[in-house]
Design goal:
Layout (H helix, E strand, L loop, with lengths): L4 H10 L5 H15 L6 E4 L1 H16 L11 E5 L27 H8 L3 E6 L11 E2 L3 E2 L1 E2 L2 E5 L5 H8 L5 E6 L5 H7 L2 E4 L19 E6 L2 H12 L14 E4 L9 H13 L5 E2 L4 H26 L6 H11 L3 H21 L5 E5 L12 E4 L2 E4 H4 L5 H4 L5 E5 L14 E5 L5 H13 L12
Parallel strand pairs: 2-3, 2-8, 11-12, 11-13
Antiparallel strand pairs: 1-3, 4-5, 6-7, 8-10, 9-10, 9-16, 13-17, 14-15, 16-17
Protein name: AtzE family amidohydrolase
Pfam family, one: Amidase
InterPro entries: Amidase (IPR000120), Amidase_dom (IPR023631), AS_sf (IPR036928), Carboxybiuret_hydro_AtzE (IPR014087)
Length: 452
């Protein structure tokens, strides 16, 4: 649908070549008729979206400025507030809550830029998982192979972009919930610097780790959406070859398939670097992230768990209850580990501009496989697909999840695999510059279903 990218779509609307109404109507029709194959959406916002599209068209007719995302439809993970709708956060537990009085802050900014929300999207209940298997709304399937998982917890957001129906979607990322599904579905995703984007109107999971961000089909689209969400343009950097790039080894180099290893090698060769860094304490950092997430999530839900435990997805309920029972001493120790690991990470950026790591150690697991292999052992997929994203969340740094482009020598299409590009806090400009260069070089970038 979105040939030429998000900017080209917005330009067609601004210059009167195509109406916002037509674009939004087409997106809604595609979601209504095609999404049964993937289960990305939980609700269509048809009436509101078409009304907003008509407003955009009327403003253009009157000669008003309508913003860089004029008429561009997008999807919203079901934990963002939308005016007049009860926010579910992927659950039925909140169904008795009153409708939201206003849109979430980042959605307000996107609408001000001309974009139009058209659907709410499936997720793991309360964002607690990496698979988007939801007992209430179903499992989101991977558009590249519907027998496989889309990842989570922002699985509906990544999958709907991978279908090509919508050019971008919003997700949240506490421990990898944007990055994991982006990798498995072959799209771009951004966990921005913690605190850069407002969380007003976003249902929390673990507040001290939560972030929100966009997923998109192209690096430049991702940048455009982030600029609208942050309200600040990203500075251009032309001299990317001066970037000091290092690859994370050790924890981040285990069990990687050949396609992923080859892609990491190509990235390092592009920058002329062979520098590898092995971080100490990664396993403890991941454990700390688990404890912080479980404790904060369990504490948030404890009053409701006491009243209506059986309304929860059983897997979510058990994990939240376990978190609520963790002793305070464990949470305090986890925070100490978090601070030490964050300081270690940030120290690296005194001598390094970008760290490179895989996002997930392989392709999307099959839906009927509830476990994945880690160091030769079977572990639950729901908790462990984020094994490479979770430790990095503790640093609060921006992390760009990027799909590896197919190698020119590939005999046939392969399932997506992805990498993480990590920079110092506030340096999203470095990540977008590197992503653009690598996409132009044919090293990063995966074709969505609409263009493959």
């Amino acid at each position: 649908m979105m040939g030429g990218g998000l900017t080209a779509t917005a330009n067609r609307v601004r210059f009167g070549i195509q109406s916002a109404h037509e674009i939004v109507e087409t997106a809604l029709h595609e979601l209504e008729t095609r999404d049964h194959a993937w289960h990305c959406t939980t609700r269509l916002l048809s009436e509101r979206a078409l009304r907003m599209a008509d407003t955009v068209d009327a403003r253009i007719k009157d000669g008003d400025q309508v913003g860089p995302l004029a008429g561009v439809p997008f999807g919203v993970k079901a934990l963002f507030d939308l005016e007049g709708i009860t926010t579910t956060a992927g659950s039925v537990v909140l169904k008795g809550n009153p409708p939201a009085r206003r849109d979430a802050a980042v959605i307000q900014r996107l609408i001000a830029a001309g974009a139009i929300p058209v659907a709410t999207l499936n997720m793991d209940e309360f964002a607690y998982g990496f698979v988007t298997e939801n007992a209430h709304y179903g499992t989101t399937l991977n558009p590249h192979d519907p027998t496989r998982l889309a990842g989570g917890s922002s699985g509906g957001s990544a999958a709907v972009v991978a279908t090509g129906i919508l050019p971008f979607a919003l997700g949240s990322d506490t421990n990898g919930s944007i990055r994991v599904p982006a990798a498995l579905c072959g799209v771009w995703g951004l966990r921005p610097t913690q605190g850069v984007l407002p969380l007003e109107g976003v249902y929390p999971f673990a507040s001290s780790l939560d972030t929100v961000g966009p997923l998109a089909a192209r690096a430049e689209d991702l940048r455009c959406v982030f600029e609208a969400m942050s309200g600040t343009p990203v500075a251009d950097i032309d001299d990317v070859m001066s970037f000091r790039v290092a690859r994370l080894g050790g924890w981040f180099a285990h069990d990687l398939p050949p396609a992923l290893l080859e892609g990491l090698d190509r990235i390092m060769a592009f920058f002329g670097s062979s520098h590898e860094i092995e971080l100490s304490g990664v396993e403890r950092a991941r454990s700390a992230a688990f404890v912080i997430s479980a404790s904060e999530g369990g504490n948030l839900h404890l009053p409701r768990l006491r009243k209506c435990p059986m309304d929860y997805d059983p897997a979510t309920r058990d994990r939240l209850m376990a978190g609520a029972l963790l002793p305070a001493a464990a949470f305090i120790q986890a925070q100490r580990l978090r601070n030490a690991f964050r300081n270690c990470l940030r120290e690296l950026f005194k001598t390094t501009d970008i760290l490179i790591a895989p996002t997930v150690a392989g392709v999307a697991p099959r839906i009927n496989a509830s476990t994945i292999l880690v160091d030769g052992k079977s572990v639950p997929a729901r908790a462990n697909l984020g094994i490479l994203t979770q430790p990095l969340s503790l640093g609060g740094m921006p992390v760009l999840a990027a799909p590896l482009a197919p190698h020119p020598n590939d005999a046939e299409p392969r399932l997506p695999v992805g990498v993480q590009l990590i920079a110092a806090p506030g340096r999203e400009d470095v990540l977008f510059a590197a992503a653009r260069a690598l996409e132009q070089a044919g090293i990063l970038g995966y074709l969505t279903l609409a263009t493959s």
